[in-house]
Amino acid sequence: MSGVPVSPHQDREGLTHLLEELKRTTLAYTTAAADSHGPAVRRLFGHLLASTLELHSELHAFLVAERLLASPPPAEKAEISRLVKHHQRSEQETLLLVERSLNGPDSVEDGCYPS
Question: Which of 20, 8, 14 is CA-nearest to residue 66?
Answer without folding.
Answer: 8
